[in-house]
Sequence to fold (145 residues):
Amino acid sequence: MTLVAIERVRDAIKNDAALAAFWNSHYSKAAKVVIGYKRSANAADFPAVNLVQVTGLRNAQTGNKEVISIVIGVNNPGITNEVFDGITRVNEAGDLVLEAIKHCYVGDARLVTDLGERHPFYELEISVQLRYRKEGKLFNSIGNT
Fold:
């Protein structure tokens, strides 16, 4: 597995101004953005964004193709307008993450929520196919620069 593509996604998320403002507005701190995943039951570990390789293909002619999951976790116990705040926050964060990484992936993003089964902790998983990579350079989905 090459970490170059996943590191690019991590950096895009960590350096996005809209995401930084969102985390500070709702949680008064930046989200922890790490490669790897550990399910936490500690409120201090949230908000968090975890990046995990799901599958990968290697091709000498067209470069590497990676599918990753981005797991966004928040801690929100409240309810506003009959909607759990955790559902609202994790979906808002998901939209901002997708905007921050829009140049890093191709095709559709698959989003799956945990349905709040661990209230007040909520998670949203976003699976995306990263753009092809060859020799450390970013290529589009058909292999061109």
Remarks:
- Residues 140-145 have pLDDT under 50 and may be disordered.
- The two ends are 22 Å apart (CA to CA).
- Helices lie at 4-14, 17-27, 85-100.
- The first helix runs from residue 4 to 14.
